[in-house]
Every structure is written in C-alpha cells, then in structure tokens.
Specification:
alpha/beta; three-stranded antiparallel beta sheet; 3 helices; about 20% helix
Length: about 140
Amino acid sequence: MAATPKHSVSVAGIVVRDDGRVLVIKRNDNGHWEAPGGVLELDESFEEGVQREVMEETGLEVTVERLTGVYKNLTHGIVALVYRCRLTGGEPHATEEAREILWMTKEEVQGAMVPAFAVRVLDAFEEVPKSRTHDGVNLVHE
C-alpha cells in the first residue's frame, strides 16, 4: 500500500476596500507581493486562521465574507483556502512577516504578483469560488 501523501493547509484573506483596492503585503521572507495569509493552525477554523493571519501580518482586523477559491501548489503540496474579507478596524503597519503593506488595484496586482498569486486576488471578484492548481509561480492548465 502506498503512503498517504502529506499536505499543508494554508489560508489567505483578500481584503477589499469600498473603492475596490485590495490589501497586499511584501513578504519579508521572499520579497514577493501576496495577499496576507499563512499556515492554518491545528486548533482553529479556516475563518479564525484568516483573521489571525491578516492581523499578524498587517495589524488590521477583518470579517470573513466568503470562500473565493481553493488552490494547490503541486510543487510543495500546499492547499490554500482563500477568502474575501471586509476591513473592520486597525491601522496597517509593517510587521516581522510583511515589510510593506499597500492597497493595490486589480491592475497593479497583475503587474506586481506572480500569476499563481495574482489569480487568488482576481478570483475574489468572481461570483463562484474557483479551484486551481499551480507550480508556485504559474497556473497549471488541465
């Protein structure tokens, strides 16, 4: 019998302001622009994880509105659940995990992020949740 594959589960929050701009961070560990997020802890719900990650990385409080997509990084075995969120409080500031925090337009996101992470933001503007696979940079088309 083959060994059961092990996956890591992460969550991310696509925080959208009333003007349509999206909260993004420039990560300290790799210098990439991404939506705030990270590994889900064993004792928390998906929504709690999103709220914790956004707070830890940006200092902002959010309410989770809805699931917008599920993404699998085929290279690293990471499954990410991404949620659209609404800002409820706090002041954005750089943290240990995020050296910069910006509110970007959808067009700016496409220019600043690799395709596998930009699509997470763009999918948050769609009505139906998406399910996608990628290699860490580019989407894998099936």
